[in-house]
Amino acid sequence: MKHSSIKGTDSGTILFIHGNSSSSEVFKKTVDSEEIPYTKITVDLPGHGANVEEYDAECDFSIKSYQEKLLSFIEEIDDDILLVGNSMGGHLAIELAPKIKNLKGLIIMGTPPVKKPINFEEAFLPQPALQTFLTENPSEHDMVTAAEIAVHKQENAAAILNDFKQANPKVRSVLANDLIQNRLDNQERIFSDLDAPKFIIRGTQDPTVNPSYLETITKQCNGTCTLIDYDECGHYPSLEQPDKFIKTISEIASQVF
């Protein structure tokens, strides 16, 4: 799995996982920041970013395949780990978390921990335009509209659109099928029962995630669970509020490592 790594001066590794039709570019400012003294690693999932040409088979783009490849990669990291996931990357992170022996913390954003079967109406907000992220070959108009709706400030839409167009179109249809076939685990239970400290970053203008559902998840969690609100922020906190995100990651990392 292609990845980018910047070695830190302090012990502890932060692993960032992007979402569907996105890429590691959404974390670039975070990884490049010298304010975070820990090792930072970003991955490009198969069919995304720098990992587009390496994979073309539909089996490479399933939730199960992503998890297997990520876990194999993580098991090679000889360090304590803080796991960070955005959108689909957050869903992957939740299901991976109990399997990581040296996990010290979990941060999700744009990610409601769903039940099984998936509780779409409870966990998500109705936003028809964002069905584009589950459509293999949408029109140019639909792609532009979805990118603009996903973020709060339109200046960030171009980055979302670029990643979307670069991704293998099959990643969207395979994910859609995984959702239809109910192939996600009971993430609500996994997240609640996880022993490691848990953090949810909530963009107050995120058009996809039900904010009240995240409050419910936070209240019913076992152990430490913190809800962090970002104003003027949509679905991509690391891209839309980079300075605040860097500060948040630095503070959480210093707590858990």
Automatic annotation (TrEMBL):
Molecular function in Gene Ontology: hydrolase activity
Keyword Hydrolase part of the UniProt annotation: yes
Domain spans labelled AB hydrolase-1: 14-246
Keyword terms, alphabetized: Hydrolase
Residues annotated as signal peptide: none
InterPro entries attached to this UniProt entry: AB_hydrolase_1, AB_hydrolase_fold, AB_hydrolase_sf
Tree of life domain: Bacteria
Database matches in Pfam families: Abhydrolase_6
Name of protein: Alpha/beta hydrolase
Organism listed in the record: Marixanthomonas ophiurae
